[in-house]
Amino acid sequence: MKQLSIILTSWLACVAWAWPQTTTNSTVQIVRTNAPLVTVLEPERSRRNDAEVSGIITISVSPALPSNAYMVEVAQRAGYFHEQQPPGQTGRGRVLVLAGEHKLSNDQRNKLTAFVENGGALVSLGGMHGMQKLFGAEPIPSGTNKHWGASGVLQLGEGYLDVRRTQHPVFAGLKHSLHFFGGLAVRATEGKAVGNVLDGHGRAKDLPVLLERRVGRGIALLIAPDLLNSIVHIQQGIAVLRDGTPAFDGTMPINEAVLKTDDGQVLDYDFDRVTLAEGEAPVFLHPVADELRLIILRAIQYAAQAVGQPLVQIAPWPRELPAVGCISHDSDGNQEKHGRALLEQVTKAGIRTTWCTMFPCGYPRSLYDEVRAAGCEIALHYDAMKSDADHQWGFDKLVKQLEGLTLNSGVTEIISNKNHYTRWEGRLDFFRWCEKVGLKADGTMGPSKRGGCGFPRGTCQPWRPLDDEAAPPRFLDVYEIPLITQDLNIHLPANRAPQLLDQVVEHGGLAHFLFHPAHILEPGMADAMQMLVREGRKRGMEWWTHAEVFHWETARRGVRLVDATAAGGKLRVKLAAERPLKGVTLIVHGPDGKQRRQTLDLPQTVVVEIVL
């Protein structure tokens, strides 16, 4: 009944953007079509009697805060095709997202109001743009004079979203800390208020999270907390200039005179961690930043459905995989015996893994060759933990170690890295170094202590750092592959891994675990790795190298939505890929709230026709 046909054409075109699915709304109905029928049609035939439909999101980024630019990454990672427009412009589609507070003229505000009245969907993240009436909300006076630059309206500081008692589709099923940093304090006038804000100590404040107002044939949504700034702050943290503050319960003793990623994380030890069993260290069980991403994406989906706008999306992983796993190995100790023992376990599990290797390393060339022959990846294990001059923190040390490993291993292109002991200094400096030397994937952001396991940077997504210290801000050409834990049974009980895998699957993300060769011969360690692989496969996951994640991610983002047209109840989508891709899952969110899905191979240009 639901039929999808694919028509290969010779059109050459490009525009727009793309990336994954992050919809965990249990009420969504999914319609999977049968295998597609492939034929060839003349381009003009495919356009006959068609009406142009936009399957894209229009994004307008305010320059007021650099973190507003992260809306582009949220859309790309989620797989939604989008276009960017300057403030006050509505673009081609019927869904407009305003990222941050915009300074608009009266004419621009009138234009946006008319856009909503005439059937448009406006989603605003952390700004009212002088359009209080449109959103049915008003700012709350701060109670202070505008003295020394102080704002006359109340601003949100650090806090939490309390949406546990609401069944609104944007928040349904979310029960966790939902930590945020900054935003607007507003109250409803004509808009429908949803949710409540808690302050940084978990105390309830009579301030809504979301305002919804139907205007004419359209809808206006305001999310008052600054979710974009919160995501960036949680993922990128603060500059590591000194030891961080340890947890009061003793489970995060990070003040040991070694600078590392733990020292820069901002999630709360008490509110953002969960104790799974008495006597165990708490874990960051829920990817908080990913849940904030999910709220943004759900708001867009909800608004689009309200105005009858279909949205086109490409799922995050091929062949409808629910998630992907990565196992990496740090060559600490550089013992050939341990390396070969680990390779035996990797081969037994039938997986490809990433070997982060120090320079100089005791591994012979033959072991490198065997690792590569097994389909595994040779990566750098940047070492800034030794006393000699070549193993200190510094860009020139990174260059020397990378060049040395390239020569010793015989690998002509090394694109992945993880820092020894999760060493880190500054905030974005190391990401900039990676970009300079051609490293495309880093796996350093993760725990060095038992009490930091899970999602200490709030995410299980491969994410691009935003250089918000640059003018203008820009995305760095490197992906972070966040680390969940080092060696199971040492840092985290192995029986907790399935719970973390469940979180990764729920968010369509990536599960990165580390197993050191130095520990693989210890009792239970090999069994823990084999168990992890089996549990991932039970959930439909595949195990990839960091390089494979990078290549898939960049190729998927190279797919463009050329146009979308509708005729006779069918939506015809024309896609253009920079290079052929296999196993791409196309998702169409229909006006009826259902998802239509089809997995297909993409040549450079393809037309996909879906019955709505």
Task: Write a structural description.
- The protein is an alpha/beta fold and 612 residues long.
- It has three domains: 4-20 and 32-49 and 560-611, no CATH class; 57-144 and 152-227 and 290-314, Class I glutamine amidotransferase (GATase) domain (Rossmann fold, 3-Layer(aba) Sandwich); 322-553, Glycoside hydrolase/deacetylase (TIM Barrel, Alpha-Beta Barrel).
- Helix content is 23%, strand content 25%.
- The chain has a seven-stranded mixed β-sheet with strand order 6-5-7-8-17-16-13, with helices on both faces. It has a six-stranded mixed β-sheet with strand order 3-1-33-30-29-4.
- A hairpin with a 2-residue loop joins strand 29 (559-567) and strand 30.
- Residues 1-27 and 33-49 have low confidence and may be disordered.
Low-confidence parts, pLDDT < 50 over ≥5 residues?
1-27, 33-49
CATH superfamily of the largest domain: Glycoside hydrolase/deacetylase
Q: What is the CA–CA distance across the termini?
A: 11 Å
Q: What would the average pLDDT be, to the nearest integer?
A: 90
Count the helices. How many?
A: 13
Largest sheet, in brief, is: 7 strands, mixed
CATH architecture of the largest domain: Alpha-Beta Barrel
Structural class: alpha/beta
Strand order, biggest sheet? 6-5-7-8-17-16-13
Question: Which CATH top level class of the largest domain fits?
Answer: Alpha Beta
Number of domains: 3
Number of strands: 33
CATH topology of the largest domain: TIM Barrel
Q: Specify the helix fraction band.
A: 10-25%
- Our estimate of the beta-strand percent is 25-35%
Rounded to an integer in angstroms, the radius of gyration calculated over CA atoms is 25 Å
Cα shape: globular
